[in-house]
Amino acid sequence: MSSDAATAANATSTSLPRIDALSGGPGGPDQDLEQPRMGLGSSLPAADARAKTEGTFPYAADLWAEGLLWAAVLRSPHPHARILSIDTSGAEEMPGVRAVVTHEDVPGESNYGRHVVDRPVFASDLVRHHGEAIAAVAADHPDTARLAAAAIAVRYEVLEPVTDPEKAFAAEPLHPDGNLIRHIPLRYGDAEAAGEIVVEGLYRIGRQDPAPIGAEAGLAVPRPDGGVEIYTASTDPHTDRDLIAACFGLEPDRVKVVVTGVPGATGDREDPGFQIPLGLLALRTGCPVKLAASREESFLGHTHRHPTLLRYRHHADAEGRLVKVEAQILLDAGAYADASSESLAAAVAFACGPYVVPHAFIEGWAVRTNNPPSGHVRGEGAMQVCAAYEGQMDKLAAKLGIDPAELRLRNTLSTGDILPTGQTVTCPAPVAELLQAVRDFPLPALPKDAPEDDWLLPGGPEGAGEPGAVRRGVGYGLGMVHMLGAEGTDEVSTATVRVHDGVATVICAAVETGQGFTTLARQIVQETLGVEEVHVAAVDTDQPPAGPATHGRHTWVSGGAVERAAKMVRTQLLQPLAHKFGMSTELLQIADGKITSYDGVLSTTVMEAMDGKELWATAQCRPHPTEPLDEAGQGDAFVGLAFCAVRAVVDVDIELGSIRVVEMAVAQDVGRVLNPAQLAIRIEAGITQGIGAALTENLRTAKGLIRHPDLTGYALPTALDAPDIRIVKLVEERDVVAPFGAKPASAVPVVTAPAAVASAVRSATGRPVNRLPIRPQAAVATAPKG
């Protein structure tokens, strides 16, 4: 790889190696590779990277306060039941117990929800899912709190749960709002259109858990004014504050949420259901109260990816060009609505994938069941349909006898094409270029048939595999996601930049969830003001809101606000100099802490120009508005789109059904590389999460009961499961409406990787592979060994 390719921010495409190469390790760039020392385009490390890798990062579970009490929550053992009575006397009489709260003790709104307010703080009459909160206890020791919660006597009338989303339509209402959350009928083109070739498929996507790193935890501290402060790893503190205040019957300014100890998040990091009981107990006892949820409680309490049932029919002509796509998409929302409406909109809008489809007729539903609640997990909606439409493309290729990559190339979307929602793709859409890049990348070598290479077999050295039973498969996936919120969401963020004594401070309520916002904010200020030392202030709700940390929002909206504020400070800094030398500020530039004029007459340092002054500015960023989908599924619902192509290479033991992912080649549409090292990390993490969804991650239920709610029963991919991930191409075609021209990086690999793995397993086995995660029996080939 040339050094120019690694650093040219304005080039149309860039190839980056793996992470070790970005740091000059094995296989890396030449030693004389020059990268910017600071600012955009540099590989500035994350400020908390060392603490997280060394284990010294202060998680929310590490919080402490004088006079601390401990909380525990009683949860329902049933997925559906009527509550006949709740007797808390046994808990209240235990020594060390300070308070017990139930639905009767909620002073304000009894329901909460970030998207739809339909979920009770504590169940009062009905239990709608396994693990629903019934009561909470505060005690002077965590063991006492847990024992007291177990001592609460609840009499239930167990009801038959509705766990099949297809039966939810005819079932008795599980909620006062009914079982149907949303129905989207998308109509685009001619319903009578038909193709010469037709393929059909039924696909099922399992329940993936966000599995947040570190315990979900928090600390509530009562305030003298009757309010409360909540210290927790929230990813959307202002929304959490508002719904917490509503449940407490308080004005929002009497509730403060302080974000602390966020180790990373791929969905809603802290469900408000963990935070509200904390605050209630703190207000009741007048003492600080801490809750650190066990992994089992996390599985029971927070939301998961929507299990989805998809029926597809694809029409194509004899050359393999798509004519029409028909689909039915059913999302299992679980007991409450949460983000189901938004997830369904993404699923329906992207049901045809990044392909040109003249006619599309999609029916989408999201329904309530007595299964665990579903909500926001990275790539929601888009991941499920990607697995299905890519399965259909493989079927078309097989039926037509066309190479799967070639079939996809004949149908790829590009800028100026129209989505089935009627929205024109105005952003860069280099889908064909991405697919060609991964298709043409050299395939990995076959493993040698030797004892020392047993670990390369599917299942590893103890997997009982035989080399003669292993088949290699190559598969493809093309995915797309939307950026920012959709369907009329008002996206806005506010940031303040302050500079004094050569140190800059950024104040913005954008939560760092691992997406790299704090690093990006530092780079923006370095680039704009030439100040090397930049600090990003801790986040709390005393700051103006910045919105949730989803859909690449903070790179675009919050990064855009930081850039505007920094440019305003830059103008304040340069105007006196420009006036003194009789020139405009546009003729002055800042680089490496120095201010120079275009003609070289002026040359000074930023510190000298500051002359002890303090400069600051506050700015907002608000992208152009979108609109809701109408009754026919039409509308300009999305601000922008991002695309990805993945080629998966897998080895499958066709006798045992064990699968080893050998390599994932990735080409991605990134708009602009802002931090090469962090970008590579985000893509690799997304690919690995996608592999988990493809092969191992499935939160299984039996009649609504979560089976094995722990990390033994729920198998996350480890370092041993991660394959070689080759980032073969990054297309840097800047989106002109986005700040810096950049696009979000981590969601679209998650969306695309499972489809590519499934495609590769189909290639290896000849089996249809229509369920994720892929079960061993689905990978056992019926053909004899050859």
TrEMBL record:
Region (Disordered): 1-47
Comp. bias (Low complexity): 1-15
Pfam families referenced in this protein's UniProt entry, alphabetically: Ald_Xan_dh_C, MoCoBD_1, MoCoBD_2
SUPFAM superfamilies referenced in this protein's UniProt entry, alphabetically: CO dehydrogenase molybdoprotein N-domain-like, Molybdenum cofactor-binding domain
InterPro entries registered for this protein in UniProt: Ald_Oxase/Xan_DH_a/b, Ald_Oxase/Xan_DH_a/b_sf, Ald_Oxase/xanthine_DH-like, AldOxase/xan_DH_MoCoBD1, AldOxase/xan_DH_MoCoBD2, AldOxase/xan_DH_Mopterin-bd_sf
Residue ranges occupied by any Aldehyde oxidase/xanthine dehydrogenase a/b hammerhead domain in the UniProt entry: 54-160
UniProt cross-references to PANTHER family, sorted A to Z: XANTHINE DEHYDROGENASE (PTHR11908), XANTHINE DEHYDROGENASE SUBUNIT D-RELATED (PTHR11908:SF157)
Protein name in the entry: Xanthine dehydrogenase family protein molybdopterin-binding subunit
